[in-house]
Amino acid sequence: MNRSLLVVTILALFILVPISSAETDEMTADEHYLMGNALSSFGQYENATKEYRLALDMRPDFSDALNNLGIVLNRQGKYEEALEVADNGIRVSPNDADAWYNRGITLGKLSRYEEEVDSYRQALAIRPNFSSAWENMGASYFDQGKYTEAISAYKNATSNDPTNAIGWYYLGTIYEKVGQYNEAVTSFEKAIEIDPNLTVVQTRLESVRKNATTTNFSQDVVPQNNTKPKEKELLSGILNILK
């Protein structure tokens, strides 16, 4: 049996029966990493943390393990630890766009928005078409009340990934926030065209159409819409458990 497949098989048993220390001692750094990914996908973040740390004990420069360790620490609310891991990831791989991106997410959790945006800029300098980094930058600007900058970031996100329905939706919510109803309608329509199952977009679209066609508000009028963009987390290699 392929060793990576064996790791996943062990994981299935692990959910019911803990793995012995002897079995764990025989695993490689890659296998601990794959185990961490699988555990994370099951929402077992504490156990995933242990596996990533075991992988890093064996290979301290394992950048994917550092990235994913930071993410599972974030999901446990351990933001200071996650930031330390993210900084270490950048020291190991300064040209890794994912490392800068994950650092930005952690800084956002700590409400350190200017540093968060700077981290996304670093990621985008390495990977200009990094749509998720553009999205998270937009979400950060939104949190700061910088709606013009948020719109610009989301326009870049949708330009780099035109099929991203959620990106179009969030762009629409920001346009609505600043009273640019026609632009909001266009963005919401694009989101629904891509994903007709987004019922929340249909609800917003119906409301904004009324404002766009029957009301001539100025752009400094803020509609009652509490929807805000959410940052995206990207777990490195989570879809490659059997790789």
Automatic annotation (TrEMBL):
The keyword Plastid does not apply. SMART domains: TPR. TPR repeats lie at residues 29-62, 63-96, 97-130, 131-164, 165-198. PANTHER family: CELLULOSE SYNTHASE OPERON PROTEIN C, TPR REPEAT-CONTAINING PROTEIN MJ0263. Keywords: Repeat, TPR repeat. This is Tetratricopeptide repeat protein. InterPro entries: TPR_rpt (IPR019734), Ycf3/AcsC/BcsC/TPR_MFPF (IPR051685). It comes from the Archaea. Coiled coil: none annotated.
